[in-house]
């Protein structure tokens, strides 16, 4: 999803498919690699204004801040 979310049309489709809440869950509780990928996908999805609201509403801000502080180097970069 990280790579697919680079495309503007896909940003809308991914969010419409209900992917934001599971990505937030992965950012919280996934493996280190899953956390990094989820943060990257959420970051790409956030380039869409409507998705920004949905991402925040799904509770993504605290886990992304946690990753930016304490994640792997890749997760820190993705979360930032």
Mean model confidence by pLDDT: 97
Q: Low-confidence spans: pLDDT under 50, at least 5 residues?
A: none
The SS-based structural class is mainly alpha
Number of helices: 6
Rg, alpha carbons:
11 Å
Helix share bin: over 70%
First-residue to last-residue Cα separation: 18 Å
Topology (elements, then pairings):
Elements: H1 8-16, H2 20-29, H3 32-45, H4 49-57, H5 61-70, H6 73-79
Helix pairs in contact: 2-3, 3-6, 5-6
Describe it for me?
By secondary structure, this protein is an all-alpha fold. 74% of the residues lie in helices and 0% in strands. It has 6 helices and no strands. It has helices spanning 8-16, 20-29, 32-45, 49-57, 61-70, 73-79.
Compact overview of the structure:
This protein is mostly helical. It is 74% helix and 0% strand. The two termini are 18 Å apart.
Descriptive labels:
80 residues; mainly alpha; globular
């Amino acid at each position: 999803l990280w790579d697919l979310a680079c495309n503007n049309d896909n940003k809308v489709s991914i969010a419409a498919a209900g992917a934001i809440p599971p990505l937030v869950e992965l950012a919280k509780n996934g493996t280190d690699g899953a956390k990094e990928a989820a943060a990257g996908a959420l970051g790409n999805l956030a380039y869409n204004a409507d998705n920004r609201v949905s991402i925040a509403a799904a509770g993504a801000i605290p886990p992304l801040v946690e990753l930016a502080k304490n994640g792997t180097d890749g997760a820190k970069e993705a979360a930032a």
